[in-house]
Design brief:
single chain; 383 residues; 2 domains; seven-stranded mixed sheet; three-stranded antiparallel sheet; 13 helices; 13% strand; binds pyridoxal-5'-phosphate
Length: 383
């Protein structure tokens, strides 16, 4: 059996919505993007939602919204994708990279507290694999030090923290709709915020810094006249992407139920193997289950993480590793003088982590096959 790491869930609904857009004569940002934003904000109960062309663009515009300046420090976890860090570097601000929790792989609140200096302006907690971070503690800490909180929710739709949906908790939240994400538009992203002035700035910056509703220029009733308020970016979403988003949003909870069920079956099967640590989710929150990350109990195995991945590949199962910590990446390591000793938990997590396939279209046979092969490998590789 061949099982890919991921397959997006595209049904007739998505296809029909895209075809409708193609036939409408308007394929870049326009009415469908506006509708997707409205429906997305409605779904999360957030006040404003602004669609962009990637999660990275969402994060970049979020740091622009808080007016991040050169030399400002922003605290981020080491276990994340480089996008979380690079947007801080764009404007010559400084990513202050800290350790994560062993159990959840999320940023450690104690590590944030230790890293705060007079230059700290913000923090970007990342809801790893879809599990919300300790938002109450993070928001309290931010309030005490007058810092902004930007949530990196690239993995976290839908996700709940103490019964509140991720997307309407912090000052500003960023989503990614990259192909492998829980809601996929190929490439795409969204910024949600409760603050009108930030929403307005993000909206302006995503289309060259041009004054309101510039996208209407070529529509009936739109005006040719526009004003550039500041140098912005070409970060707008297209109506083709938004069509996928509209169709995916309708089934986003159902897609989550599917992933949650796969996660439940994996955890039930792996808990008794003695050589796998299944993901652990804190009791007061719900993970989006974007990723299912197992950790190998290396002490009871005769092979390491890379060997395990290779064996799974030989058996037709594609996996991945989320993430190579930023402190190991040449750019961050060399620029900020980081060493593994500063990140004992992330190192421990990284050495052991494997992300298994978890996508809504997985068949029962495919899930069973992954369970059989992982448990069989455990048996064979047990010391
Ligand atoms: C944690 C995290 N943040 C940000 C991003 C960037 O999103 P995008 O690929 O849509 O730019 C990703 C993934 O790609 C991610 O995993």
């Amino acid at each position: 059996m061949e099982i890919p790491f991921h397959k997006p869930y595209i049904s007739e609904e998505e296809i029909a919505e895209v075809v409708d857009t193609l036939k409408s004569g308007w394929i870049t940002m326009g009415p469908k993007t506006i509708r997707f934003e409205e429906e997305f904000a409605g779904y999360l109960s957030s006040k404003y939602a602004i669609a962009v062309n990637s999660g990275t663009a969402a994060l970049h515009l979020a740091v622009k919204a808080i007016n991040l300046r050169p030399g400002d420090e922003v605290i981020i976890p080491t276990t994340t994708f480089t996008a979380t860090g690079e947007v801080i570097c764009y404007g010559n601000a400084v990513p202050v990279i800290v350790d994560v929790e062993k159990e959840t792989h999320n940023i450690s609140v104690a590590a944030i507290e230790k890293a705060i200096t007079p230059r700290t302006k913000a923090m970007i907690p990342v809801h790893m694999a879809g599990q919300p971070c300790d938002m109450d503690e993070i928001i309290q800490l931010a309030g005490a030090h007058r810092l902004f909180v930007i949530e990196d929710a690239a993995h976290a739709i839908p996700a709940w923290y103490k019964k509140r949906r991720i997307g309407a908790i912090a000052d500003i939240t960023c989503f990614s709709f990259y192909s492998t994400k829980p809601l996929a538009t190929g490439e795409g992203g969204m910024v949600t915020t409760e603050k009108e002035d930030w929403a307005e700035r993000v909206r302006t910056l995503r289309l060259h810094g041009i004054s309101k509703d510039a996208w209407k220029r070529y529509s009936k009733g739109g005006s040719w006249y526009y004003e550039v308020i500041e140098p912005g970016f070409k970060y707008n979403m297209t109506d083709l992407q938004a069509s996928l988003g509209i169709a995916q949003l309708r089934k986003v909870d159902w897609l989550w139920e599917k992933r949650k069920e796969i996660a439940r079956r994996y955890t039930d099967a792996f808990a008794s193997t003695g050589c796998i640590i299944p993901p652990s989710v804190k009791a007061d929150r719900q993970s989006a289950w974007h990723l299912y990350i197992i950790k190998l109990h290396l002490e009871s195995l005769s092979i390491d993480r890379n060997g395990f991945i290779e064996k799974l590949r030989e058996r037709g199962i594609e996996t991945s590793v989320h993430f190579i910590p930023l402190h190991r990446q040449p750019f961050y390591k060399n620029t900020y003088g980081l060493t593994p000793e500063g990140f004992p938990n992330a190192e421990w997590v990284y050495e052991r982590s494997i992300s298994l396939p978890i996508f809504p279209g997985m068949t029962d046979q495919e899930v069973n096959y992954v369970i059989e092969q992982v448990t069989d490998l455990c048996r064979k590789a047990k010391r």
